[in-house]
């Protein structure tokens, strides 16, 4: 990955503009690698790995942004309608047909033989 010496990328941050210089970041990585004793190829591998992680995050964010959203009021109305349509099947509302099918019944005490 090669970058032009004076290549600057302008990034919008709120109402302010800040300049991010990729060369400074790359230089910082090489200095960090030199301090901890990594080779140049190890640094390049770290940069490629970081780039792959950033691309994966970007793709995930794009997928999440593409999800169809609905207002909460519509979702709540759907939930209420579902509950009204299925309340006759809800054993906690209408009761159980017999005690044997009730998973919440009192368990019988143990007897010792």
UniProtKB/TrEMBL annotation:
SUPFAM superfamilies: Transducin (heterotrimeric G protein), gamma chain (SSF48670). It comes from the Eukaryota. GO terms for molecular function: G-protein beta-subunit binding. Keywords: Cell membrane, Lipoprotein, Membrane, Methylation, Prenylation, Transducer, Transmembrane, Transmembrane helix. The keyword Transmembrane applies. It is a lipid-anchor. It is found in: Cell membrane. Coiled coil: none annotated. Residues 47-113 form the G protein gamma domain. Pfam families: G-gamma. GO terms for cellular component: heterotrimeric G-protein complex. One of its GO terms (biological process) is G protein-coupled receptor signaling pathway. This is Guanine nucleotide-binding protein subunit gamma-1. It comes from Papilio machaon.
